[in-house]
Write a structure and sequence with these properties.
- With about 325 residues, the chain is an alpha+beta fold.
- The protein is built from four helices and 16 strands.
- Strand 13 (about 280-285) and strand 14 (about 290-300) form a beta hairpin.
- The two termini are about 35 Å apart.
Length: about 325
Amino acid sequence: MDIKSLLILFLIVLGNLQPKGQVRDACPLVADSLQAEFCQDSEKGKYPAWIGLATSDELCIGISDPYMDSYMAFEQAKLRAVAIACLKKNLAYRSIVDHYTSDKRERYASSKFVSLTNVFSAAQVDLKALPIEKSFTSSFDEVFVLLKSSNINQITSECDSTNTIRISVDLLQSETKGSGEESYNFIKLFIKTPNQYPIKEMKYYSYNTKTGKDIVSKINQFEIKFPSGIFRYQPFQQTDTSAYQKGLIDASLHYSFWNAYLDVILNNLLLMTKDGGQVNSLGNQCNSMFKNLFRLVDYQKMKFSITDLKIEGNRIYMKTDY
């Protein structure tokens, strides 16, 4: 199955995307229904100086999309901070990893790697009364918020839906090596809020293309128009190769701060979750192109910490541990 067919199948499983073209201010939320006032830091710049506080187990950071209405951006950033806090405290993941090899190297790819992973977390939090420790608005109108994870509690029962927020992440990775090398990545973040909250759900999709990345962001059923172009938070510089030796995962900030921040967190999680699972060998019982299929199936519950974070050369570097 080629990458395009695999993507189509994956999207069918996740559910069809809504058509583009919704006006970003068409979401029927008014400022009075949200937190109308919040403290803005007096500092100016592309991102807050306190971004390094993300390494604290007691604090979590959320970031909105660029160029949004300030109230909506604040609520989006707050929900994303809660989502990261939930994942750090307690997550369950399921993954299936397939690895194929082929002896027909002259005409076909020599190897193919496909990874499908779902990550889930849930917690109880009073979103309307949730205190925000710090906030900051960048020159791209992105809102950064900092909150304490101690205000977010693990759910005592799956049947208890009061003030329960649920977070689900789906990840697809595909790499093909041979005569022509290809790689593909797809991320979907889904946040389901308590029924009494004005924002019922938020979705965020990010997937790479031949020319860069496509991003789809939604609040309820209304799509936020994501601006095209490159976001520059720092001057460009040569990639810091020493970071790889220290185990840091990096991502470009070209596609917004939140896109890179989420990307490095999830790729760190994938790196941590490869240390287990049951390996099944299907031998040569595959199609005529790929043989020697090995499948790794895994399910675990875990929590993690961000142990290192730095911003250099318009890239974000992160390391996590559990």
